[in-house]
Design goal:
single chain; 241 residues; alpha+beta; ph1033 like fold; six-stranded mixed beta sheet; two-stranded antiparallel sheet; globular; nucleus; THYN1-like_EVE
Length: 241
């Protein structure tokens, strides 16, 4: 029996709405709660010590050379709270993942072309942050890894699934998914508000989160991270909130 769809991001391929007839089978246009509620004001806090300490450590490790900018890690959004979509509860928290056989599941239901392309770019063994989205306090709760690269998402052919796509053909599937496995919980919950504080500071001082897609492409449920972005965010788990 298929598990409920994992991710809930809303957005078009470009930053504009398509006509209603064309978005019926893509991810919806409504942004997640955190984007609606938090995007208009900057959170309290500063990233000065975190960024400078992280930069000093990285320069020491690399001899002061900047890392090559490539996307080699990911951020996956999923909803930890119950919400019905076409009669199906789309809730899927990191605890739900941990409860799966071998703590592994498929990441299905993506209906945004850019997010789908990111799924198709994922490589075996790459790690991703598990991000709780569309909830009271969104943020990063754990780490997963890719254990099977992209293959056709079966839910696009299931008429009973809320993400059924009548325009997709089995000989040329439009949508893909990957398999992910739980790695570990982060040492503490890393809230969106804290990450945003660093992002805003880095926009001013050139830190690693200055272009983080969590803030430049907010609606995407599948987002790439550079090595620098991943390392910096991961370093936050060692700091006191």
């Amino acid at each position: 029996m298929p598990w409920p769809s994992r991710k809930r991001d809303k957005g078009a391929v470009a930053d504009k709405k398509e006509p209603d007839a064309k978005i019926a089978k893509t991810e919806e246009e409504t942004p997640d709660k955190e984007e609606e509620e938090k995007s208009t004001k900057a959170p309290a806090g500063s990233s000065k010590s975190g960024w400078k300490n992280w930069k000093k450590t990285k320069e020491s490790d690399s001899g002061g050379e900047e890392s090559k900018i490539t996307y080699c890690h990911w951020l996956l959004k999923s909803e930890p709270e119950s919400r019905l979509e076409k009669g199906v509860d789309v809730k899927f928290s990191i605890d739900d993942l941990k409860a799966q056989p071998n703590q592994t599941t498929f990441w299905d239901g993506v209906r945004n072309y850019q997010a789908r392309n990111f799924l198709r770019a994922m490589k075996l063994g790459q790690q991703a942050f598990f991000y709780h989205s569309n909830c009271k306090e969104p943020g990063i709760v754990g780490i997963v890894k890719i254990v099977k690269e992209a293959y056709p998402d079966h839910t696009q052919f299931d008429q009973k699934d809320p993400h059924y796509d009548s325009s997709s053909r089995k000989e040329n599937p439009k949508w893909s998914m990957v398999d992910v496995q739980f790695v570990r919980m982060t040492k503490r919950f890393i809230p969106l508000s804290e990450i945003k504080a660093h992002h805003l500071a880095h926009k001013a001082d050139g830190g690693p989160l200055k272009n983080m897609m969590l803030f430049t492409r907010q609606r995407l449920s599948i987002q790439p991270l550079t090595q620098e972005e991943f390392d910096f965010v991961l370093s936050l788990e060692e700091e006191k909130p």
